[in-house]
Each structure stands twice: as C-alpha cells, then as structure tokens.
User: Fold this.
Amino acid sequence: MALKPYVPAEIEPKWQKFWDDKQAFAASKDHTKPKFYGLIEFPYPSGHGLHVGHPRSNTAMDIISRMRRMQGYNVLFPIGWDAFGLPTENYAIKNNIHPAIVTKQNVDHFREQLKKIGFSFDYSREVDTTDPHYYKWTQWIFLKLFEHGMVFRDKALVNYCPSCKVVLSNEDSQGGKCDICHGDVIQLPKDVWYLRITAYADKLLQGLETVDYPENIKQQQVNWIGKSTGAFVKFPLEGTDEKVEIYTTRPDTLFGVTFMVMAPEHPLIDKYAGQIKNMADIEAYRDVCAKKTEFERTQLTKEKTGLKIEGLSAVNPLTGKVVPIFISDYVMMGYGTGAIMAVPAHDQRDWEFAHKFNIPIVQVIKGGDIEQEAYTGDGEMINSDFLNGYTNKKDSIARVLEEIEKKGIGRAGVQYKMKDWAFNRQRYWGEPIPLVHCPKCGVVAVPYEELPLRLPEIDDFQPGTDGKSPLARIESFVNCTCPKCGGAAQRETDTMPQWAGSSWYFLRYCDPHNDKAFADPEELKYWLPVDWYNGGMEHVTRHLLYSRFWHRFLYDIGEVPTPEPYAKRTAQGMILGSDGEKMSKSRGNVVNPDEIIAEIGADAFRMYEMFMGAFDQAIPWSTNGARGCRKFLDRVWRLQEMIAPNPCPDAFSDDLKVSMHQTIKKVTEDYEKMKFNTAIAQMMTLVNEIYQKGSITPGEYKALLLLLSPVSPHICEEIWQEQGYGEPVYTQPWPKFDEKYLVRDEVEIAVQLNGKVKGKLMVPITMTRETAQEELPKLDAVKALIGDKQIVKCIYVPGRLLNLVVK
Assistant:
C-alpha cells in the first residue's frame, strides 16, 4: 500500500482534539508520584496576538514538560492570562469598547493560537488576573501586606505620563520614557501608595545564593537592588541647631569635602527660606527641575546645573570648616537623604561641578593629576589629620567610622539603590485597592470576608484630567461606611499596577478553583517550588524581584512552604525580524505564526524555533530555514517506507546500535541543557545514517519518534498510530541508553596509495600501529588495491588512515 502523504493541516488538529478530549496533560492529584512544575511567563493578551518570537519560551518548556511526563513525573505545566493593564484600557478607550470585552476577545484569540502550536498546557488550571475569583486573592495578599506594615502612603515626586494619565514606578519609566506608550515622563508631586520592598532587600539578595539562576540574571537582580555600605554623617547648618544628614560610601574622604549639594525640593530650604537671599532664583530653578524626569536629572553625561544657596552654609563636622551649599537637579529627595557631601578631588561629577562654580578642590588621596580630572583610585591618605599615612581603603574607612561614632556625628550604614515599590495607578482597568479612608479612623482595610472588592462596571472609563482614577467619579463606589466605626467614609479609588496579578500567579496554578484560600496548603507543599521557570530577559529584574518579594513575604507569615518561588530560572534569546531588528509593527518585520503554520505545519514551526540557533542568543527569523525543518519532517515521515522486519520488534540493528544509543544520550542531555539545536542536529544525523543504510527496524523508529516527540509531537503521534505501536506517544516511557553501546568496536579508516584515497576499511578501534602494518596489507581488499606493485613503506594513523607507499 502506498504511503499516504504527510499533511500537517489534517494531522495536527486531529491530535490537538485528541489531547483535549483525553485531558492528556492535566496534572494528577496523585501526590505519591515525583512532581515537576514547569512554568512560563503567562502572556499579556494584546490585540495583536502572537508573533513568532512569543512561542519560543513556551516551546522550550513544552519540550521539557513532555519529556518529564515520559520520564514518570506528575507534571504541572499551566497557562493563564496577565490581562489587566494599560494597553487594553487604551485600546478600549480608542475603540469605545469595554476593556472586559477586549480582554475576552484577546484571550480567546491567544488560546486558539497556542492550541494550534500544540503546547501541552493543563488548560483545566487556566487563570485570568481580571477574574474576580482570582483578584480576590490578589487583594487578600495586599491586605496581608497592609496588616504587617508593608504598605504605606507618602507624598513624593512621581513619574507621571501625561499621555496615559498615570503615575509610573521607576521600573516602568526607565530612560525617562513611559513603558506603555513610550512618551516622555514628567515629575509631579502626589500621594503614592508604596510597598516596602526595601525591607526585603537583604532577604532577596540572600535568596539568590540558594537558587539555580544564570549568573547574568543573578547579577541583574543584585545591581537593581544596589546594596552599598558606608556611613551616615551629620553636617551642622551654620548658625542653627539643624543638622543635614548625608550618606556616603567613602567616609574616609570627609577631609576633602569642600561643598554640599541638596535636592532642590529639600524641606530645609523651605524651613529656612527667610534667611535665604536668592529664594526667587531657587523657586525658578525648582520649576525647571519639575519638568525633568528622574532619568534626565541623574544622567552622568549631562551638563551640570545648579545654584548656590545664599545665606545657608554647612560645617564639615571633622574639620570645623564652613562649606557652601548648592542645589542641583542631579540630587534627588528619593535617593539617600536628599543631600550629598561633595569631594571634587575624588569624584568626577563633583570635580566638574566644582570647576563650573569655582569651588576649591582639596586632595586627600595621593595619586593622579587633579588639575586634569578627579583621582578615583586608591592610594595614601593625605591632608586628613588622623588618617594621614593610611594606604588601605578598608582600614581608612574603619578608622573614620570609629571617630565619627565616638564624636556622635555619624554612624555606619547601608543604602539600597532600589526604592520602595510605587503601587497605585490612576486608571480603571486594574484591581481595586481594598482600603477605605475614614475621617475618624484613618485608612482602614476592607474586611477579608467582603473580598473581592469588585471593579464596578462602567461605560465611562476615560482617565481623569485631575490625576484621579475614573473610579473617583463613581459615587456609588466611592461613598461607603467605615468597616471600623460605621461612619461615612470613602473608598480608595486608585487601582493596582499590572505587576500585582503576576506576582503570585504561580501559586494559584497549584489549586486554581479553591474559593476558601489562594491555594490548599497541601497542594502548595507538593508543587512548590516551581522546578523550572523560563522566560524573557526583559523580566529578570522587575517581575522576578516583585514575585520573589511577595513569595518571601508569604513565607515569612507562614502562607507558603518555601522561601523562594523558583528553584531554577532560564531565559531565551529574542527572535528578531529577518532584518536583524526587534520585531515591531512600526518596522513592518513582524512574522505571524499562523501564516507559517498554515504553510509548513506546527511541528516544523516548533522545530525551527528550537533549531534556529543557541537558545539563549538573539537570532533573526528565516522562513526558508523553517521550510528546511519541514523537509526534515518529510524525511522522518517517509521512513515508514523503509521499515525492515525484525524478530525482536524493540531491538536496534547491529549497524545502528551505537548511533541509536549515542543519539538517546545526546538528545536527553541536550534537552536538559536547553541545547535544543544540537539535539535536533543529532536526530538529523541519525536520519541521514538510516537513509544511507536503507532500512530501519521498528525499535529504531520507535526510539526516534519518542526522542522527536517533545519537539514535533503531532507527526510522531500520527506515525506511531499508523504503525500500530500501541498507546499514544505521550504515555510511553522515555528511551534509555546503555553505556556499553556508546563506543564503537570498529572504526572506518581511509586506505591511501601514495597519499591518494583509494578505498575505505573497517578496522578494530583498538588496533595498534604495529598490528595494522603487519595485518592490513594481507587483507584481500588491500591486495586488490595494490595489484602487482611493491610496498615500499606502510604508514598507519590509528583510527584514521592506512597509507601505503608503493612502486
């Protein structure tokens, strides 16, 4: 009977329906089996749908999850939707459609696309951050944070996007640009809700020592937290009882302080405005600063601007010398104490500022030429009283710390670059913050039993022009009674940022339908921690830090059983457009996976995503490369015409035994190392060998299909069924290799006459030079090559060649 053609458009929907009907990939409630929890970053369901770069992470973790099931694990590989957020709301406003409708449409489209690719997600555990049954528990965790003093409100200069009409965290406004619309961000004073993530800085750093993350991911977390050790030092304001506290990592340079710089917004300026002679100029400078983003203000390369405060000076607490105080935009109230000491001899920014404003420069560390630039290296301490002669920075710092603590003018301290997490947004499409403002009781939590505090269904969700949330316009939502005293009160009208729902979704997957708790403790105990979390490098600071923070907090209050949420974290490289640039609609280089799958099938698409290059590297898309993977699958399909009967149906032939065991070993190990491209290359090599031989045993075909199935599952299931190999591939055990068959007994060598290859020969791999020179010329095959010529010299290179010099 002729082999039927390979038609992915028929095969793939058939098997996707089969898996759905059988709930083939639903995690079991059987806790006696070893577990594997594989996680991807749940997608934000945008209106654009997937492009070919999105499925790369999913495909990798799908390969691992499919292999783990075949290795006997109870696998949890879930999917959900990070569906709150500004892009959906902005789209809804633009198109006059409710965000909930947009979200449902987008989720349905995304789900359809993911199913077409054949991912083995457990769809029975699907979560959606916009579902009240889900965000009830987001609000519950927030109230736990509030209850334990981890939520506070403060007035601060915030990053405000005039286009989105929303306050943004530092993380969401890097480079002075809005993360959502990419427009310019300005600074505005506002009351802000914060989560006290800085209280967990050390725990977040310590936790990195216990997890399996790549070093570059760990380092990004370390850099974001930005822990530094130094000293807090108090500088008296001349002629007052006031002291200005600064933080420095180099207290050993205190003798080199020749001026101070305050943030333009520093409250002491307003306190002593009466004695400041140039207050009008300071107010004008403040107005200019208010129009700059934090990024613009702190750029190291920008031109230095500032003003000397006329009528206010400080006193160096070690030398007693009076030093001028300046204001400058590069000093921020939100960083450190809002004031700095300046040592222009040994800090380049201070040096440039001192030169611009003609401030004296005092060198206190020997080295360099401070007439040309600041000297920032180490050296002998000079001009520093009791520190003179010290040559070791560590000793110098220890000595000055001893002195300032003895005099009561300072103390050792630690600072963090990371700031507390700005947690409110003035938009509609987010989780309502479950707090009530009572004129008598202050801020009061909504009672747990009243959760979820539902987002009201409204038609007008345009952002307010007054910096308030659209919820502030809904009297029926705002006006309420105080849960504490029963008096008239008002609800908080800001909503949570999109990061809220994604900070704990991996916990809900463990028990997604529980209405009594965010998850049953026994389910958490079994499934946690996540064994392997794969995602993009763009999320290894913010999302990873936020979710680790929430998890560690929940661990500290006894709600989860592990201190860290993810045992292992990996990241994939980006798939670029064919032009080598990041895919974007504006560049016109976006490739739609639906179109690729329609042409070559999901199996070939999945294979190419893994074969196109090293998994952790950015790689340009090539549709021709994807077509090459389709051709390989055609060859795998046609192997059905080459099956040779074998009395032992699961046995390997002698010719291919070594290659089969080597392939099983390499593919298994390469999948574990995420070296998917070399695993696929090994299977391609094996298929080439099979074609050269001209036949394949059922045992060899089965092993190949089992190894290939995590990458290209549909075609493997179809061939398996066509050949009557039994229960579906996904239920089969993973193939094992035997060490004793990993090394060949024989090796093929070239036979040369006078340096020219004339033939090939199989010889024992252990054959010595002496044995080869004596025995090989006697072989009939070699004699036939020599003919009537005489051997002058015999050269043997073990395992490679036999060269006979003849005449």
In short: The longest strand covers residues 151-161.
